[in-house]
Amino acid sequence: IVEVCVATTELNETKISPIDMELWKERMDRTRQEEIKLAKVEVDKVLNEIAEYNRTGAFEKDTGTRRAVVFYVDKGSGFLAYLTWWMFTWKKIGLDAEEEAFDIILLTHPKSINKLPKECRKIDDQFDAEAAGPGQCLFKELLPISERDHKYDNYLNSQECLFNNASNFLKSYKIVIRADLDTFPTPRMVGYWPKDVICNRNAGTTHYRKNIEDAIIETAAAAGIEHQHWHNTDSAWMGPSLRIITLSKLTTYLARFTRVHMFGPGTLCRCATCTELPRECEWGQGIYAGTLLLYAQEIAMNKMWSQREYDEQTYAILDGSCTEEKISVCTPALLHARHNSEPFSKFAFLRGDYSDYDLGSLDITNVRDFAVFMAVSSAGQGKRGEVALQKYKEKENGKELSDLCKNT
Predict the structure, then answer these.
(1) Residue among 65, 142, 62 at smallest CA distance from 102
(2) What is the per-residue pLDDT across 179-208, written as a single tens digit (0 to 9) for each?
(3) Would you say 174 and 65 are in contact if contact means Cβ atoms under 8 Å apart?
(4) How many of the other CB atoms lie within 10 Å of CB of 322?
(5) Average of per-residue pLDDT across 22-40
């Protein structure tokens, strides 16, 4: 929409307003309601699928024999450092062993296929997701939803790739993990086969502010979902394949709905006289467009989770901290490198600030030092890495990393 406005200047301050406020409000409301109607149709389709799955007991059926973490690899080369440390860690902790049955699945932009590690194998029509064998890095080409339909932004590429027709094979896995690529598996992931949907519920997405939480609850109701007041869910999920795939599908269409319902034409953050973002729409003050996807994920979790599952997630098993030296790697199963500046900082790592890091000073049984060691070592950087490993062996009486968290 291109709008023509009236600009007035008073005391060196320029203000804008519509030529006709009432007509502007009518246009904005009409445009917003049209998109809400279209987005709601897509949400309703998934809600009907969920109702059918519940009716037939499909969510309860035991399928598959393997686990998979699923990533979307977009165009560019920014993903390489993260993928390199993921695969390095996967091997270092023994997660690639045959008994772990843990694959890395890369749904990949056509322009990035030739940038993938050579050991990653293309998924063909003969692929069997239940075949025994060690873990593999596997890829399949997929043009992202953001390039196929402008109504969906690029943050949804890592959601839609789980339920696209190209990834139907994922339903044959027992356990699926949806996560961001800037994460690390820990030794806690070894032998971890949860029967529930696992998600960190202490992400702080709403900043525990009533105005944000009320807006999410209102959006959920408008989408036809009763919000259970389960706020602050994080970005990674792990659990039975069909439930995780369905969560991603619901999230994708809820994101489109949430964008227009919360942030569409004529709403608080797109007001008639705004020349800058209202304070109520800034980070930490109110609803924030930059965390729209997390709002949509939260609404989806409120539809798909159970009270018991929510109650049992008392600490972060997924999306754990990369900065805490007092948290054992046997507490979280997946670490998430956030936007922090202190170690481990993915930004400092990408700048090369850790290239001469003394790895021998680390205790890799805590999450901070573990993340530093795995990332820096995967890049062939740092010094005295063998000392860090020797210190670990001495501390843990020669125990392999793959055995570190057994019986915990």
Answers:
(1) 65
(2) 999 999 999 999 999 999 999 999 999 999
(3) yes
(4) 26
(5) 94
Q: How far apart are CA 403 and CA 307, in angstroms?
A: 32
Question: How does strand 67-73 pair with strand 175-178?
Answer: parallel
Cβ contacts of 280 within 8 Å, gap of 6 or more: 211, 268, 269, 286, 287
Judge residue 235's burial from the number of C-beta atoms within 10 Å of its C-beta, 0-12 exposed, 13-18 middle, 19 or more buried: buried
Instruction: Give the distance from CA 85 to its chain's centroid.
Output: 17
Q: Among residues 245, 53, 261, which one has the least CA distance to residue 159?
A: 245
Q: Categorize the per-residue pLDDT at 3 as very low, low, confident or very high, splitting at 50, 70 and 90.
A: confident
Rounded average pLDDT over 234-250: 98
Environment class of residue 267 by beta-carbon count within 10 Å: exposed (0-12), middle (13-18) or buried (19+)?
A: middle
177 with 70: CB under 8 angstroms?
yes
87-116 pLDDT, tens digit each = 999 999 999 999 999 999 999 999 999 999
Q: What is the pLDDT of residue 13?
A: 79
387, 363 in Cβ contact below 8 A?
A: no
Token pair listed for 19? 């030529």
List the alpha helices (DSSP H) in 329-366: 346-351
- With tokens 């054992």, the residue in question is 328
Averaged pLDDT, 326-346? 96
pLDDT of 276 = 84
> Comparing C-alpha atoms, which of 259, 332, 334 is closest to residue 292?
259
Residue-wise burial string across 74-112, b where 16 or more C-beta atoms lie within 10 A, e elsewhere = bbeeebebbbebbbbbbebbbbbeeebbbbbbbbbbeeb
Mean per-residue pLDDT of the chain: 95
Average pLDDT over residues 37-59: 98
Measure the CA–CA gap between 258 and 250, rounded to whole angstroms. 12
Which residue's entry shows tokens 């792990």?
Answer: 238
- Give the integer Cα–Cα distance in Å for 96 and 208: 39
| Token pair belonging to 367 | 């999450």
Dihedral over Cα of 204, 208, 213, 215: its sign: negative
Q: Give CA–CA dist 33/39, Å, rounded.
A: 10
Indicate the pLDDT class of residue 275, thresholds 50, 70 and 90: confident
CA distances from 9 to 2, 14, 114 (A): 22, 4, 55
| Residue where the block lists tokens 């490198």 | 337
